[in-house]
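Expect chain and fold; see below:
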Amino acid sequence: MTDAPAFEGWALVEIMGHRRRAGFVREVTVAGAKMLQVDVPAPDGDVTEFYGGASIFALRPVTEQLARDLAKQAEPRPVRALSYACEDDIDG
């Protein structure tokens, strides 16, 4: 019985069914444990994230262009500041 080669390439990864990351993925070993390294394209250079196998819900191979487009859509957007009123006088 031979081990199949680990997948390495552009993919959309769903983590725990709640978070999606698109980028270049490869299997790596971190502290003796196999993990998935996801290099997410960003304007200032790739952002690298690591995920354990048990947390991966799905992995879909995609083209490089699609992964880059998906990564752009997931970029953090500017946050609108909220102002909170201080309620010093609760009794009116």
